[in-house]
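#structure-requests
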Amino acid sequence: MSLISCTECNKQFSDRAHACPNCGMPTEDILYEADEQFHDRVELAEEAYQSVDTLYNALSLLGFMSVLGVGAMWVLQPDMDSGFARFLMFGGAALVGVSQILKRIADNRVADELARHISVPAPKQAHK
């Protein structure tokens, strides 16, 4: 446990508190402002998340478009090969589902990484 200074009111308090007891500013915001390396890691994590988010959104859109396109073709051309159409529709739906699952995993990994950088390790207890 160490003392940190609040960037709003300049009072010192424990880094384990969730917020400054004097003004209520969240501890993670104070640490974010005070630590340049932490600031850089958060920015890198946000940039990585944005690129991954864009990729998974594009994959999801591609899958949705294939399902929608094949469905429209199926309605407009009833004599179309139904086996191939089913394959394309299943593949598009699977692409949407997988991309959303991967997006959730990426969200959780970014959140875990940020929490790891924000949290302070617990003190070691003496063995009896």
